Predict the structure.
Amino acid sequence: MILTKIQEAAHHYPHNIAVQVKMGERYQQYTYQDLIGQITSVARALSEKGISAGDRVALLSENRPEWMIAYLAVVSFGAVIVPLDAQLMEKEVALLVASSEAAAIFVSAACRQKLPKNYSGTVISFDPGEGHLFSEILKTHSNSALSSAPSEGVFAALLYTSGTTGDPKGVMLSQGNLASNADSINRLDLFSHRDNLLCLLPLHHTYAAMGCMLLPLSVGATVTILNSLKGPDIISCMRETGVTALIGVPQLFAGLRRAIIDEMQRKPAVIRALATLFLRINGLIRNATGINIGKSLFGTVHAKFGRGFRLFTSGGARLDPEVYSDMADLGFLILEGYGLTETSPVCTFNPLTKQKAGSIGVPIHNVEVRIANPDENGQGELIVQGPNVMLGYYKKPQETAEVLRNGWFQTGDLGYRDREGYFFITGRSKEMIVLPTGKKIFPEELEKFYKQIPAVKEICLIQGDRGLEAAVVPDFEYLRKKNLSNSRETIALEIEDLAKDLPPYKHITGLKIFKDPLPVTRLGKLRRSMVKDLYQKDGGSAETTAPESDNDFQNDAVAKKLFLCLEPFSAKKKIMPGDNLELDLGLDSLSRVELVVNLEKSFGINLPDSFGSEIFTVKDTVLKLKEHMSTGPAKTSARTPVSWAEILSQDLTEEITTAVTLEPGPLWNAVRYALRIVLTCIFRGYNRLSVRGKENLPEQGPYIIAPNHLSLADAPAVIAGISWNLASQTFFLGATEYFGGPVSSRIARALHVIPVDMDARLYGAMQLSAYVLRKNKILCVFPEGSRSRDGSIKEFKKGVGIIAKELKLPVVPVAIQGTYEMLPTGKKFPWPARVTVTFGKPLYPGDLDYDGIVKALYGDVVRMLGKDA
């Protein structure tokens, strides 16, 4: 029955190219006449080898014309095709072959080694090797005739969904399921015998099999197979063969959109401005009239896809509305549909005449879609009824009964229907996160929100012990360009900033950073259960064996010396070239400072202060070292670890000392005195400032003041809370973001603010802090490193412990309350909140180590906050 339409197409267009694939520099082509002849030959051969109707036949291969021929031959006489993912592991292949009880297997050379060693069925190989050779079968049965078509209800295809486990679930589709779905989609008039569809998706997936094989072959169109996802290869193939349509997944279209926009951004400013203007104009016209003039406005972009290209279709996952809108504004026709393996697969599609951004469209012919048990907002589970709905799950009656109720398939997808009958998906019922408070979160929606952060490349939200938690893969290229070496802290702060206006239950309470891509299906969907398993381990990535190239790298003289320098900083036993300094070796910003100093001494070279923020992996470090060594001869010296005592006692360069003015002069002293009076009046009058424990402050430096950090108002609150005698001696560390400009840096020097870049200039900041203290001044340091985004106290960093220990100076713990309510992150004007500043008794380092000092200091501040909580 599936072949009936294909036979009709072959009758009308016998010499049309049915399928072609690029082999080296040429295309291997099959006409419709060739296709039907080879399908019948293979079907006859299978019958003679004892394969009969109802027997399962597996198909394990990359995309190729033989794949299609084998698939269609199996179903043509009533046997059952079992398409397997060519990227499955050997263990998974064995599991599925056993589960399906496959009597025969078609296999390619690339997948041959994955076959079960004890498999006793018939093996037919597409390439020379063991088993029956596909090409020989074609010769032997070249004059065969196709048998009569099986009936609608005959079991045709057994499809195992992604995420196979020890108890695989196979979807059973009938001849009628597949034929009806192809017929329903053809009524949309998407394709004709004049079209050439580019097949990039793996054909084992139902979406690809329908869109790139059953559908186009039933109308006499050409299918062009390309086994490459490289942009230049795709564009070249499209232009060489005259591709008119491309069936893809959201991930592909997001990549195309990004490539087009990035290319525009590289153009001169005038062209960029015109392109932006044209996009907006076409968007307005398209939304108001439905007319799209983008192809005329962006002719050079369209020319790259070939003269005849006219259509994209998207499925397999939700298409980002912004991707759709941008592609549409560029003049591309992109149609989004929706379906599942269990529905053969298509249920809904956006019509050619009217598409909606973010919508999965309207139900296709002969298929009914409803929203079951809608809530007050009209949102509920999508259920589907029609001839496209599966027979059931293979040998799993209980699981079948759970999803097939009174003829309706329960999709598990949540969504709503608008007034015009268009459906929208909001999430999966199984993926919906229900917090202990009863609040419901749809992770896809929130993930899209958090992906606005430039440093976030991938994110997956899960329900953890602390509430909503996130597995994140950073955009290391972005971090590298910005000289941000501490990916976790950078991303955590940006997440907190972005979420400040969200309700509290949507805030991320736990975060783990991964350096490798998160697991996804072949169509780009997150495998959430696998991500959760990884998250519940330690994060990061698994140990891997070094490839030969890395082993050669390890024998490099510079690399060997670097490995010796890294050993004291990491607990990892075997350091690999691909190791990330932060995620694999555990180096924080301070450890990088120590490492850089050790590298200078070990290699006998001078490295810039920014070196520590420019290196992300061990291999990066080796290459950067070689760059600096090439500028002059490197001294040979043994590895000699340098202590923080040595680092902080080194003579400072003139560049570093000019960042601070110890005695600003009478004029600036007067300005600072007046500023303190103003701040005192504001805090005492407007914010009812209360100061406690002033008697705990020594009257003369050197010592360190260490408050918790809630707001930009914290430093002014400290100044307003102490005497002028102490304020005139006190210096503050301030971020270069606020005090690093040509004018602001001069003001900073006069106001006793030391600009620091905690990523690129931490080395100098630590030395400058020690310099100020050695001049008997007072240094105010915020040990958290950055402001709190939610008003809670965060972990203290050990920098303050290092300075206190090495200089043998006391640290005064300070508890600040009220400044978060007064001036929270994102607010420009203060509110009249009550502010309290409490000074604790000085903490003397004594025998405590760095971590011990910081832990004791943190405990003191927490206790003082608790007294007034």
Q: What stands out?
A: Residues 45 and 137 are 6 Å apart (CA to CA). The chain has five domains: 2-225, 249-428, 438-536, 548-642, 656-867. The domain at 656-867 is CATH 3.40.1130.10 (Glycerol-3-phosphate (1)-acyltransferase).
